[in-house]
Amino acid sequence: MNIVVFGAGGRAGRQAVAEAHRRGHQVTAVVRDPARHSGDLAGARLVAGDVTDALSIERAAAGHDVAVSAAVDLSMPARSFFTASSRALSTGLAKADVGRLVVVGLASILPGKSGVALMDEPGYPDEYRSFYLGHAAGLDELRAGDLDWAYVAPAGDFDHEGTRTGRYRIADHGDPASRISYADFAIALLDEVDAPRHHRATVSVREA
Fold first, then answer.
1. N or C: which end of the chain has fewer CB within 10 A?
2. How many Cβ atoms sit within 10 Å of the Cβ of residue 154?
3. Cβ distance 97 to 148 under 8 Å?
4. Which 3-state string (H, E, C) describes the chain?
């Protein structure tokens, strides 16, 4: 397939590009500054793009079968960025005739063992709550649109030093103690690309 990856320069985005290449897909990697990524996204077609701009998304996504978004911009307030990017993706992908989007999500806003969002469970770290709420607002925007999306989040967090084991499993709920490598998480992302199982739904992924 032809896959366009927004936010391809980040850790999750780079692993998504690598996993897509491993499976033989053609990849367009959308980043803010292609000159910064000529070495770490080898094999991908590098293009400049703005994930908060629907026209930029439409141009980058034209001719592709599916989109992946791993984009984040910490220079903007989280609510502003995630709502703007979700709106722009919904509009721009529709205009480009790309009907499927797989998003790298955040565990904090998905249900924990108690059934409430992890961020609302007792003892959950609260220092980044504005970031959590920004992600939640972005997810609400996806729900308000018509796009077929899957919001895929680690059940807890990423293992930043972890390596590829080739395995993962779908979690019943979020778990703050869970850690999964970026490479294994990318397998879950690309499985949703290759054989979609979750439609307009969230899914938690944990280590096998």
1. C
2. 29
3. no
4. CEEEEECCCCHHHHHHHHHHHHCCCEEEEEECCHHHHCCCCCCCEEEECCCCCHHHHHHHHCCCCEEEECCCCCCCCHHHHHHHHHHHHHHHHHHCCCCEEEEECCHHHCECCCCCEHHHCCCCCCCCHHHHHHHHHHHHHHHHCCCEEEEEEECCEEECCCCCCCCCEECCCCCCCCEEEHHHHHHHHHHHHHCCCCCCEEEEEECC
Tokens representing 150? 């899957």
Give 70-127 pLDDT, tens digit per residue.
999 999 999 999 999 999 999 999 999 999 999 999 999 999 999 999 999 999 999 9
Helix axes 78-95, 54-61, angle to 10 degrees: 50
The dihedral sign for the CA sequence 37, 40, 45, 50: negative
- Measured distance CA(137)–CA(114) in Å, rounded: 22
Q: What is the mean pLDDT of the chain?
A: 97
pTM listed for this prediction = 0.96
* CA atoms within a 13 Å half-sphere pointing along the CA-CB vector of 94: 13
- Could you read off the pLDDT of 195-208 as tens digits, one per residue? 999 999 999 999 99
> Token digits for 97?
């005739």
CB 143 within 8 A of CB 200: yes
